[in-house]
Design brief:
The chain contains 11 helices and 10 strands. The protein has about 290 residues and is α/β, with parallel strands linked by helices. Strands 6-7-8-3-9-10 form a 6-stranded mixed beta sheet, with helices on both faces. The chain has a 4-stranded antiparallel beta sheet with strand order 2-1-4-5, with helices on one face. It is globular, with a radius of gyration of 19 Å. It starts with 18 loop residues before the first strand and ends with a helix. The N terminus and C terminus are likely disordered. Bound molecules: adenosine-5'-diphosphate and magnesium ion (MG). The site of adenosine-5'-diphosphate has 11 residues, from strand 2 and helix 1.
Amino acid sequence: MTGPEPKQRRVGGASAPILAIERITKRYGTLTALEDVSLTVNRGEVVCLIGPSGSGKSTLLRCANALETLDGGRILFEGREVHASDPKSARAVRQRMGMVFQNFELFPHLTVLRNVAIGPATVLRLDRGAAERRARALLAKVGLSDKAAAHPAALSGGQQQRVAIARALAMEPALMLFDEPTSALDPETVGEVLSVMKALADEGMTMVVVTHEMDFARRVGDWVVVFDKGRVIEEGPPKQIFETTTVARTREFLSHLGWHGESTLDTAASSSSEAAQHPIDKEEVDR
Ligand code: ADP
Ligand code: MG
């Protein structure tokens, strides 16, 4: 093959995007949280959103999930415009879009099984047996079959987050949104959550992931979008963002996180404690 690799090639880019965010603006009073932000997510793609705290990443997910009204622009999900102020539209969107938050937000008074089964039972109107069968299958998938009868408080943060992922999957979403899913976790449980997310990505789940886990973004992400002060300052394949960026603010942000152009997992330091905390299988993830 001759010539450089095409820079903008994206997974599923030939068909209509599942999510199209078109020049949206979002204000809170006088504060502009998002300004003229556009972003597309194709089916089967893992899009990672990175950038400093306060740059608008969570706001973007909330807008996509019909939790916020817009001050400009529009959002199309599966070809239909998202109207957060229309309860019917908002409900339809949230049924097809799973969201996983930093703080899990499980129901503390329900068992793990009921936490996962309640969506299918109430929203999708599956009978209790069918809802619980689906929940058990998903708990097995996230490695928590033995915790079905436990209450969330008895679980570690990493386990609770895996339940939250199973709960979102129970609705059989077309798109999963993750908002810093490992930020609130003890370091020793980060890896188990990232592994579950990677397995989902490998199955072809379409995902938008806000994360500070740069190894995950680089290895699992198909496309990386960099936010700063409510704007997208750069987007591209991981290689561009993590290895060849010429955008000064991207470089600054990455070096602030301790990223210096190559993964710690690539170097002789691969047995370091950081690598041990993030046991994403290297060979499998490299593409
Ligand atoms: P990030 O997720 O990148 O850290 P956010 O999307 O949470 O950033 O926030 C973007 C900006 O919007 C920040 O300045 C934040 O303080 C502000 N903001 C977010 N949510 C609200 C809200 N509900 N009310 C007022 N300001 C908000
Ligand atoms: Mg946030």
